Structure to design on (274 residues):
């Protein structure tokens, strides 16, 4: 694959319809009407956050094992001495190249690059990957993520997620030797991790996705099936790493693992095992 994506289709936006033109006063009057709704939305968000802080919590076994850089580590040690933990459960396609890893999880995780503010509130952030640690750690290095990554053995996935699917963002509280889950979300709830969407929502053409309520003639370049997070065959955020000369080789599939056979993959490698 080439080491850079092809030029984007700029005509989709540059040749698109435009909003009507108004003078400054008319523009501001319309914006002021939206501002009332924006403030109400902000206040409702504050109220929802207050309700989250009042949720009950459920106890989780603090000894559930994960795999880190030094081998097996119990969940409670992932807190790294802090009282709270935010964990993102990253989907993984074992035995597949970096370009074929989950574009949605890549979108979410690639935005979390500054951890100091979380740490200042006694919160640790970590990524829990369902794949083998050897692959996941190479991927973390390729992407340059600052957060610690852990591999979650299959029996630990079941114990932590309790019949939920991967792609979950979960929050935990440590109280002495006990661990409690205090909140979780997934799907569009994960958008809180990705400020790119919040910024795009403030632009005239928005996310340019097919589901959006936009005027006639506005660009709708992507559906919501994952393609909105990819460019030229790989997750979009990978391209800056490729251009920087980073190696995206995830190495051989570790012994004991089976290559991913989900519907995204076909061909002989989908059934290969070590």
């Amino acid at each position: 694959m080439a080491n850079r994506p092809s030029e984007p289709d700029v005509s989709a936006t540059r040749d698109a319809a435009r909003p009507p033109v108004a003078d400054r006063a008319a523009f501001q009057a319309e914006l002021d009407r939206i501002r009332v709704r924006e403030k109400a939305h902000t206040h409702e968000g504050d109220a929802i956050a207050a309700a989250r802080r009042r949720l009950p919590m459920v106890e989780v076994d603090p000894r559930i094992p994960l795999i880190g850089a030094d081998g097996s580590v119990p969940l409670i040690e992932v807190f790294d001495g802090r009282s709270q933990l935010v964990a993102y459960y990253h989907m993984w396609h074992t035995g597949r190249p970096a370009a074929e890893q989950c574009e949605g999880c890549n979108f979410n995780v690639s935005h979390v690059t500054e951890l100091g503010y979380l740490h200042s509130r006694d919160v640790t952030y970590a990524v829990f990957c369902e794949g083998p640690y050897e692959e996941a750690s190479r991927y973390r290095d390729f992407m340059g993520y600052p957060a610690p990554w852990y591999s979650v053995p299959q029996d630990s996935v079941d114990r932590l997620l309790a019949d939920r699917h991967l792609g979950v963002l979960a929050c935990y509280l440590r109280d002495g030797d006990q661990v409690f889950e205090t909140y979780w979300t997934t799907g569009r709830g994960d958008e809180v991790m990705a400020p790119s969407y919040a910024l795009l929502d403030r632009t005239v053409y928005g996310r340019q996705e097919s589901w959006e309520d936009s005027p006639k003639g506005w660009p709708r370049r992507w559906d919501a099936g994952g393609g909105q997070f990819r460019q030229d065959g790989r997750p979009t955020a990978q391209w800056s790493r490729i251009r920087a000369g980073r190696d995206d080789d995830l190495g051989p599939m570790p012994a004991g693992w089976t290559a991913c056979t989900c519907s995204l993959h076909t061909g002989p490698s989908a059934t290969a095992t070590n």
About this structure: Confidence is low (pLDDT under 50) at residues 267-274. The chain has nine helices and ten strands. The longest strand covers residues 178-185.
